Task: structure prediction
Amino acid sequence: MKTEQQVVSVEDEVEAGRMHLAALLAYRPKPVTRQGVAELRDNDAIWLRVYPGGNPYEVDLDTCKTAAQLAFWIFQLSHKNWCTGEVLRDFLKVVEGWCWCQKGMSAKIYFGGTR
Result:
């Protein structure tokens, strides 16, 4: 008789005590601090360099600590004439890297999502 195999995340294994936290950290990729036009600066701001040689657009991460604040920034950026899907993707990748660097968790968990 064949049984269905359940997919279990590494985080679930650690929580259940079947895997040590060090093993989880080995699975975690290095946090992204620079992606395309987005760059994490001094762990307190993300710079978006959309114009070569121009001044960067700065997002202060003190104003991006809740899901509502992150949604505000996504909305704000998406209404800029220079913002493309690629710019938003770069921004969100660096936000994810900041969450791992500063909080040791994914953006999904940090901003209140479930696993």
In short: Strands lie at 34-35, 38-41, 45-48, 57-60. The first strand starts at residue 34 and ends at 35.
